[in-house]
Amino acid sequence: MRLRHLPLIAGIVLVSACQPGGPSRQAASPASMAATEANAEFELSTRLMNGAGVAKDPAAGAAILERLAQQGNANAQAVIGEYYLIGAGVERRPETAAVWLQKAADQNNIFAQVSLAYLYMRGVGVKQDYARAMQLATAAANKGDPAGENAVG
Length: 153
What we know:
- By secondary structure, the chain is mainly alpha-helical.
- Helices cover about 70% and strands about 0% of the residues.
């Protein structure tokens, strides 16, 4: 991560720590602090992609997301998968998109399950497999996702 984004991350962490109810009087656990930092980095990546409050830098935003994805963050895996699918901040690579979406879907990320279902339906980045597409769409539909429900029919 570039050092110039550090003040923004610190600000996002500070704002997220001061949500309704005020700051906690208990010391934050290391796991809680790591989650807060990951959320702040995720937010920064989104801002970099869109140029919201920072100079637009899709490549930097995608790099942060990919690092979070490599650390096992399911939301980051789903979003970087979409970025590889459309070529946002990274080179368009449908096969890489499918790998990231599968990792997120394996963690029950509904967005990834639906996106991956459509890839299997169309044979984009993966071998066309209607049974696998239906399995993924059904998993999302069972969690109440409208796109999953629509795909299942």
